Amino acid sequence: MRRECFGWVLVVAVAALMPAPAAGQETRGGAEFRTPWGDPDLQGIWDTDALRSVPLERDPEYGERAVLTDEELAARAAREELRAVDDPSVRPDGARENLRTPVHWDEWSDKPSPRTSLIVDPPNGQIPSLTLGAQARPPDPSTVIGFAGGSFGDGPFNGPEDYNPIDRCITRGLPNTWFPSIYNNGFQIVQNRDFVAILYERLHEHRIIPLDGRAPLDASIRTWFGDSRGRWEGDTLVVEVTNFSDRTNYRGAGSGLRLSERYSRVDAETVRVEITVEDPLTWTQPWTAVIEAQRDPAYWQIFEYACHEANYNMTFMLEAARAEDRAAEQQQR
After folding, report:
1. Where are the domains of the chain?
2. Tens digit of each residue's pLDDT (9 = 90 or more) over 11-46
3. Would you call 298 exposed, middle or buried from its count of C-beta atoms within 10 A (0-12, 13-18, 19+)?
4. Using CA atoms, how far apart are residues 78 and 71, in angstroms rounded to an integer?
5. Could you tell me the pTM of the whole model?
6. Which of 251, 258, 320, 323 has the greatest number of beta carbons closer than 10 A?
7. 3-class DSSP assignment, residue 152
């Protein structure tokens, strides 16, 4: 979805703080893809549209196979080409695949990735089993991000709090916001010596990540997006994320969730982000997903994401729920 651009103050503020390079500043390695002060340069607008058709978890039929064959990839590309067409009459089955949004909203890549899953560890590409404790915890649809809940569940829908944070235009949460969806798969990175700023186009979410060695927030402080602290390990930016709130529960993991992110510059057009997800109260072992994001200056820029345009969708969903209530009452009479 593309909308009128209003810009974002966050990037401007961080860029304005960018210090001039010091004379004789030592760099980590070669000069390619370096900032003026010597850190690896991760800056730019990146998108993950090429991963749009790659599932988070691998289809068991592929076992531990990480990539498709040329024939399988060609079939995936053909399916994406069909999805990009807004005329259902050209489809083999004449159907629109029960899409929840108009086809032209989708952002399918003309060069889809051959990967079989975003998850790279465990080797089978599957999220590990839930612990016994997690299996016994009933999910709260108003908080769960990453699988059915909120407007994707069966209700009840008595008020806004019965919908999850995505429905309410609050957050997609971490790590979920890294994983591509039907549109707005772009993010922008701006950095200086002491901070890295990330803006995600979807829901216009943003993060400010300190690099100055400051201590994490007190354990009593919990936030929607957790608390991020970064450091350089050679040419890799390592970010530890803690202090999540139970209100942004990801697949059963709430305040016990912990992420370790590793950012690296692959080449002029690619940045790689490896996300390790851990919660010993939820999963029997940590698991890791990887995204490779591309830069396409001729096409991609970050636009304002006016979620539901003041979130009228919430009003409409609640009105629909009340209409169903009235219909049920009339049937009882």
Report:
1. 9-17+32-67+115-332
2. 444 444 444 434 344 334 345 799 999 999 999 999
3. exposed
4. 11
5. 0.82
6. 251
7. helix
